[in-house]
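Ops channel
N.P.: pipeline sanity check, posting one input/output pair.
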C-alpha cells in the first residue's frame, strides 16, 4: 500500500501531531486496523489467527470494528467494495456498498 492508496481510506483524524497521538492513541489503532484490512483485502482478508494475534479480536469482532471505523472515515466507494468482498459488513449494518 503506497501513500496515495492510504489516503483513499483513512480516519478523518489520521493526521495528528505527536501530542495528539499521545492523547488519542485509539486513532492510531483505527488507522492500523483499516490499513491492515485494505492491505489483505485483495487476498481474501487476514486469517483468523492473524486477526487475533495482531488485534486481539475474533474475525467477527474485527469486521464489526472495521465497519464501525469505516462509517467514521472518508473511504472511497471502490475501496469500500474491495473491503466488503473480503470483510462482509455485519447484517443490519448501516454500510451499503
Amino acid at each position: 500500500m503506497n501513500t496515495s492508496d492510504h489516503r483513499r481510506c483513512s480516519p478523518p483524524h489520521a493526521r495528528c501531531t505527536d501530542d495528539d497521538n499521545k492523547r488519542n492513541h485509539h486513532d492510531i489503532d483505527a488507522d492500523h486496523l483499516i490499513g491492515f484490512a485494505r492491505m489483505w483485502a485483495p487476498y481474501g482478508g487476514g486469517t483468523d489467527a492473524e486477526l487475533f494475534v495482531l488485534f486481539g479480536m475474533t474475525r467477527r469482532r474485527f469486521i464489526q470494528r472495521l465497519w464501525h471505523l469505516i462509517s467514521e472515515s472518508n473511504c472511497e466507494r471502490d475501496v469500500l467494495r474491495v473491503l466488503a468482498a473480503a470483510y462482509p459488513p455485519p447484517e443490519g449494518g448501516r454500510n451499503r456498498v
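N.P.: looks fine end to end. The chain has one domain: 3-86.
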